[in-house]
Design brief:
This protein is mostly helical. The protein is built from five helices and no strands. It is 76% helix and 0% strand.
Length: 168
């Protein structure tokens, strides 16, 4: 891995870690919200009307907030049976190709999410029940995909070698 890539990774890892902490907090908020909703429904006979809507937004946020760190550390779900069956000299090349594929997917998905975000931003779209502005929630996928693309690019720069944050 080049010195530049290492420096970028060292700079980005705390940022990605902070986003992952926010993802964990979103997960905790989901548990609290569902618990409070169940309590209100069964004991106060007054269910929250907005629970499903907010839980859906929080689940999406949790996924996209955690994605950059998982990608940087290469801790996502991987099927290694094919790569492990290859001779060691080909494993690095296959890992680089997989990271290039991930990079391409993130950039393509980023390209698809931008008009979606712009549409919500320009019209000030709100959720149906809670009337929450949706464009801040809709900014998370493009931001996350951009950061994940950077992580995949750093994984490509590693060339399939081991790094401080995990296997490439």
């Amino acid at each position: 891995m080049s010195e530049f890539s290492r420096r970028v990774e060292v700079f980005l890892e705390p940022v990605f870690l902070a986003l992952a902490i926010l993802a964990a907090l979103a997960g905790a908020a989901i548990v609290c919200l569902v618990g409070a909703s169940v309590f209100m429904r069964h004991f106060a006979n007054a269910p929250f009307r907005f629970t499903e809507e907010l839980v859906g937004l929080l689940m999406t946020a949790a996924f996209f907030l955690a994605l950059p760190l998982v990608t940087l550390r290469a801790e996502h779900v991987r099927i290694r049976i094919f790569v492990d069956a290859l001779p060691p000299r080909y494993r690095g090349a296959v890992t680089v190709m997989a990271n290039l594929f991930g990079l391409g997917f993130c950039l393509w998905f980023l390209w698809l999410t931008m008009p979606w975000f712009e549409f919500a931003f320009q019209r000030g779209i709100r959720s149906e029940v809670a009337r929450l502005l949706l464009y801040p929630w809709m900014l998370l996928p493009p931001l996350s995909l951009l950061l994940a693309a950077i992580a995949f690019a750093l994984r490509c720069a590693a060339g399939g070698e081991e790094t401080e944050t995990g296997p490439a």
